[in-house]
Amino acid sequence: MPGRSRIALWTAFAGVHAWLTWLGVVVAPAAAFADLDLYRWWMHLGLDWSTWPVLDGPWVYPAGALAPMLLPALASTTSTTAYAVAWCLLVAALDAAATAALLRRAPGTRTSSAGAWWWLGYLVLLGPVAIGRLDGVVTPLMVLALLAGVRRPAVASVLVTVGAWIKAAPAALVLPLLFAARRPVRDVVMPAAATCLVVVGLVTAGGGLGHIASFAGAQGTRDLQVESVGATPWVLSRLWRGDVVVELDPELITWEVHGPGTVAAARVLDVLMVLAVAALLGALLFARLEGRAGEALLPGAFALVVVLVVTNKVGSPQFLAWLAAPVAVLMARPGASPRRWRRAVAGTALVAAALTQAVFPWRYGPFISGEALALATMAARNLALVVLLGLAVAGLAEVVADDGRRAGPGEAAREPSEPPRADLPADAPQET
Question: CB of 337 within 8 A of CB of 146?
Answer without folding.
Answer: no
